[in-house]
Amino acid sequence: MNWLQSFLLPRAAATHASEVDGLFMFIIYLTIFFFFFNGALVFYAAHRWRRRSAGEITPHTTHNTKLELIWSIIPLTVVMMIFFWGFKGYISAAVAPNDAIEIVVTAKKWVWQFEYPDGTRTLNDLHVPLNKPVKLIMHSEDVIHSFFVPTFRLKRDVLPGRYTELWFTATEPGVQQVFCAEYCGKGHSDMLAKIHVDTDEQYETFLREGDEQVRQMPLKDLGRLVYENKGCATCHSIDGTRGQGPSWLGSYGQVHQGTDGKGHLVDENYIRESILYPQAVIVQGYQPIMPTFQGLLREREILGVIEYIRSLK
Amino acid sequence: MADGHTLTATGTTALAHGDYLDDPKGLMSWLTTVDHKRIGIMYLWSITFFMIVGGLFAMLIRIEHLTPTRTIMDAEMYNRVFTLHGAIMVFLVIIPAIPASLGNFALPLLLGAKDVAFPRINLMSLYLYWTGALMALGTLFMGGVDTGWTFYTPYSTTTGGGVTLMVFAAFVLGFSSIFTGVNFIATVHKLRAPGMGWFEMPLFCWGMYSTALIQILATPVLGITLLLLAMERLFHIGIFDPQLGGDPVLFQHFFWFYSHPAVYIMILPAMAVMSEVIPVFSKKTIFGYKAIAFSSVAIALLGFLVWAHHMFVAGMSIYAGAIFSFLTFFIAIPSAIKVFNWIATMWEGSIELRSPMLYAIAFLLVFTIGGLTGLFLASLSTDVHLHDTYFVVAHFHYVMAGSNLLALLAGLHYWWPKMFGRLYNESLARIGCVLVFLGFNATFIPQFIMGSRGMPRRYYNYLPQFQALHVASTIGAMLLAVGLFLTLANLLASFRRPKGMVDNPWGGKTLEWATSSPPPTENFEGQPVPLHGPYDYRAVPAPIGSEVHTG
Questions:
Q1: With an 8 Å Cβ cutoff, is A109 touching chain B?
Q2: Which positions 161-190 of A are in contact with B (Cβ < 8 Å)?
């Protein structure tokens, strides 16, 4: 009856799915059986004992204790079995293996943000390696959301003020659909994400070059994204306000006075040096507190920041 | 028969004065009545009205879902429409439907009593219902409510619209329900006819009693929960808002502590009607009286222990999940016991497939599916996949809408001659039943399938792969609507006929059939004393002519 399973359920794309599908199909067969069994009894009785004359006398059968016990104990046994089967699957899904890759998921109306161990962040696109356990540590910035992957048969609510977890081992390369499954307002049905299950090679590429979305993005927009998400905004404003570091507004093409007494032209090389070796030149009037972003920004992201600064006239 | 009562040759009881419908006359006499029968009838019309309103919202939802994106409304409107559909159907229709209409009408009659224990409180119940209903409708003028009928925090504490008014409306409606419960408990304890012990009263009364237990014990918890929600919105007390140190999941525990028992408030009365209709139309004693009676109470009590099966993925501990799943399975057993006992009642009976019995058979089939699909959701690992999908929507419509509605219609078609002294057209009633049954299944079976395939609920837009199933469901809904309107029209058309019903058209053995159709205001002339059990078909057959022939 595999056709019935593929009719009712989406394809299975994680190790957990087969646990669930076996039980699901068992209950389906049970449901179909008892629906037809009860239906058959009812239709048989309605036909066989249809009223044939007005004064018919019926047997005064008030009860049958043996029958009551049979149709109590057998169903009880069956449901207990279902309970244990479901319980087993639930527990195995609750405990992630120790070597699972941990990804932090932040839900907010109405997007999914993923943060990788190396600090990279992606929006609505999650990259995971094939056949390796992945653990999602999730929280919400506003209302309750829920992370649902039908092809994994997994779901967990994502709460504000608390962390919830979900783990899986994806078994099929390709893209798996993620839905938000807890009503969260106007954009609830648009709060979709995709899990890109990458082969080892694809995953390497992703780690090195970032995801598709990032690679396609125009440099200036990428620079803006980095500015907002990687901490630049903490110290550098884009509107001229003085912060812990010089404002970027109009800085490209300016000459910064260094504490070494020399003037430094703000060009591509200067910006690159400031990001990777921030202690090389300290601008007069500022403290030497900028951390280095060596290893934290990809090459393309650095180019993006340069483009972005250039655009801030 | 008690004195003052003449049994005529045609089996009708001649009344010394008018029946409860005619006497006293005038709108004011109805609005200030304390007669349980009149109150039941007024509830019946109110519930019918709100079922139509809630049903219209359902049709709007189904029409919107004909296409994967915008069809007739935007997302914000859609969110308000599905919220109001749920809130109206749950609080204004399904929870009161059978207890407040059929229960109010029939309970005292079945017990051989003159009225319920507290007739004035009964009237107050009705007025509280109308007040709560008006308040709920008032939210339409405050921008609507877009939280879903479940009001989960923090969305419900932070969104705009008429949420506060809606929760106060539900608060008021809760008291309507509680007062009905108090009344029924006192009535069953104190007003049974002489000689009618607990195990000699009709099973409908056991069903109403069990329902009433839940009404009085669970509803106050909803009241408090809604009050806390209102306080949170108005005064930001921080009980559910995590930004103030509160716990949003706590709301879910409070909410479901009532709302799960609430679904048994819905199904127990439906089962109670089955226990009346099936023996009469099988002309055979009920099989397993005590099993059914004890199952009713068991369902009522067990229903309080399982609320967090709505929260397996909510962030609760896995141990709690395991305990609630384990307990949830136990409720399957008394439900299954009842279904088997009803089938056994039909076995070797003398079955007449008149419309009340057709509805009962439809109930048995629909409830079987509804109950069994609950197993998927009680089971932890399958529930993780199915929670918050259309599978759940289909499951609860099978038990709440399908089973409940079919039982209500069975009871209405059964007691209609007693209530109004007239009969509806039987052929149209049968056609209506078939259309409702087919339409209902056609609406919701596609929803099981889209749910297990991963279609989430409360979705305005959906992925194109689900469209075929949505269209199928919408077509089913239209068929269901046709069946329901046909049934309503048929019942209303019976008022074109003059009153002239025999006391006992079906040959029933319970006490309501021993008085006229419709009954006098005081129900019986003198205190009736039952001479046999409520399902004893060994008793002398009813006088010739007292049974209606097919028409």
A1: no
A2: 161-162, 164, 177, 179-190
Torsion angle (degrees, nearest 10) of CA A209, A212, A216, A218: -70
A104 CB within 8 Å of a chain B CB: no
The span from the CA of B383 to the CA of B324, in Å, is 12
In this structure, are A113 and A193 located in the same domain?
yes
Last residue of a domain, one of A159, A194, A213: A213
Enter the CATH code of domain B32-514. Answer: 1.20.210.10
Q: For residues B518 and B419, is the Cβ–Cβ distance under 8 A?
A: yes
pLDDT at B132 over 90: yes
User: Which residue in B346, B385, B392, B465 has the most chain A C-beta atoms within 10 A of its own C-beta, making it the best mutation to test that interface?
Assistant: B385
Number of domains in chain A: 3
Mean pLDDT in residue range A82-97: 95
**Rounded distance between C-alpha atoms, residue A133 and residue A152, angstroms:** 13
Q: Is B205 a residue whose pLDDT tops 90?
A: yes
Both A144 and A243 in one domain: the answer is no
* A260, A209: one domain: no
The residue range of the domain holding A281 is 217-311
Average pLDDT over residues B132-154: 96
Residues A187 and A228 in one domain: no
Same domain? For A287 and A224 the reply is yes
Give me the interface pTM, i.e. the ipTM.
0.92
Average of pLDDT values for A44-66?
A: 94
CB pairs under 8 A between A and B: 270
- Distance from the A197 Cα atom to the nearest Cα atom in chain B, whole angstroms: 19
Contact A39 B284 (CB under 8 A): no
Residues 6+ apart with CB under 8 A from B27: none
Where along chain B do its domains lie? 32-514
Cβ density class A162-183: b for 16+ within 10 Å, e for less: eebbbbbbbbeeeebbbbbbbb
**Interchain contact B372–A (C-beta under 8 A):** yes
| Residue-wise pLDDT tens digits, A145-172 | 999 999 999 999 999 999 999 999 999 9
Single pTM value for the model? 0.88
Does B232 lie at the interface with A, CB-CB under 8 angstroms? Answer: no
Q: Do A222 and A262 belong together in one domain? A: yes
The pLDDT-based confidence of B16 (bands split at 50, 70, 90) is low
